Amino acid sequence: MALLEADKIPAFHDAALQAWYDSDGNAIEDAADPAADSAVRKLVLEQHRRNFRLWNLEDEARRTDSTDVYIADIKRSIDSTNQQRNDLIEKIDEAILADLSDPDILNAEQHSETAGMMIDRCSILALKIHHMRLNAKRAADDELANECGGKVEVLTVQRTDLAACVGRLLEDFAVGKRFYKLYRQYKAYNDPRLNPALRGKNRA
Prior knowledge:
The chain is an all-alpha fold. It has one domain. It contains six helices and two strands. Strands 1-2 form a two-stranded parallel sheet. Helix 1 (9-20) crosses helix 2 (39-61) and helix 2 (39-61) packs across helix 4 (115-138). The longest helix has 33 residues, at 142-174.
């Protein structure tokens, strides 16, 4: 899995966030993406951008100075972006599995979480670290700054551990020790054929 290099995922995620936020922490929606030198890394970047958008939409959804119509529009954007996020997790897994060249997994142990799911968790941790670090720098009092700084340290360890787990999973898969399957999410809430609330609206 040289095309992915799981241990480099954290730095890849961080570089993207540096490009997508200005120095004050404001989102730059039309910012250019960092270079992606493989199809898998391009998918990782696209999936990370969906989490970036979700993070900012979730912040907006918690505003108390906006109209109900505005919040409803934000919630709908969250739904559609989350659907894209899940679709891209599956695409990451498809690309990784295609790159594994059919290793012998007859005697391998099945891993319940896919690499794509773990990479998604790394992406969310990158966002937590980025924003917690910003909060540590601009906190008005030393106590809050120290609290946020301590959380950055914990989150960074968690992400390092998780990225290492992704790497070990892929290494074990390649040599037939562990494997995972592509799991389809089949989200029903955005499909008017499957969501009874939307189906009822269409009948009306």
